[in-house]
């Protein structure tokens, strides 16, 4: 990412001689919204009311980082770097568990190395480095699933609550943890621990109550999503058709059409992943991915699905285990997917829409 930042600063220049700082390359799109919330919170004079569409977890982390970091953009990058490191380590543990649980003829260490490599070379990996919420959510979510798989339900609930302060996907994670708890069996859980499953919902409830107190609207978050990003409920068929037209109908600029093509591919991958998890009877993980797809696949058009893919840990762990058994998978992934990641990163760093 550092190399791509350097390339974008000299190749994609705003003016004939003005490159600007390298940090400025990361001041794109949602990063500015997170910075505004971190600086002024949601309802200060002159702030955009649509900013309430973004949960407060990442802006709070940015504010804390800014106590020791000189620059708001740098603060966001520091939060993502630290959270990304935690997420990657947790993903490695999950990949090891993937091999151990399946009793597969594969090296667990190699599976972990593969999974983490695939994760950081994913098409939307630039958002793991940027001042966006993906890395922080992944740190909480992946760690919560590690805790749940080890029957540490109180820790899983607390970490899932952290995820719920960052993105609404924390509720999908909470649902998966609850189903894991129910299916765990007597040897892994006790029913007196069930109240812990409510903890992840508390940050979302608190945020909804806060928005109602400030705006008088119980649906302020949904209305902000619709006003700023056209996220209104549509049938999956309508969303697919609208995205298809944007991708191949000639209604969008070339690079934007390409991004919509990636959205379609990500949805197909998500559906295939859900089906595979169901076939393997991995019900909680299938529920998590299915809820993510349902939320993103029933809006005006598909948007940010490749970013959501980053948060589907079963995708990376299963790919990692598969590549440990079939090294050619690793080679094909690096050759085919890494160039896509470079393309998306250069779009983002040059100020173009990248999903």
UniProtKB/TrEMBL annotation:
Keywords, ordered alphabetically: Endoplasmic reticulum, Glycosyltransferase, GPI-anchor biosynthesis, Membrane, Transferase, Transmembrane, Transmembrane helix
UniProt keyword Transcription regulation present: no
Main location: endoplasmic reticulum
Gene Ontology BP terms: GPI anchor biosynthetic process
Membrane topology note: Multi-pass membrane protein
Compartments where found: Endoplasmic reticulum membrane
Any one GO molecular function term: GPI mannosyltransferase activity
Pathway linked to the protein: Glycolipid biosynthesis; glycosylphosphatidylinositol-anchor biosynthesis
GO CC annotations, alphabetized: mannosyltransferase complex; membrane
Alphabetical list of InterPro entries matching this protein: PIG-V/Gpi18 (IPR007315)
Endpoints of the signal sequence: none
Record field: transmembrane: 69-91, 112-133, 153-182, 194-213, 258-279, 286-303, 309-325, 332-354
PANTHER family membership: GPI MANNOSYLTRANSFERASE 2 (PTHR12468:SF2)
Protein's name in the database: Integral membrane protein
Species assigned in the record: Catenulispora acidiphila (strain DSM 44928 / JCM 14897 / NBRC 102108 / NRRL B-24433 / ID139908)
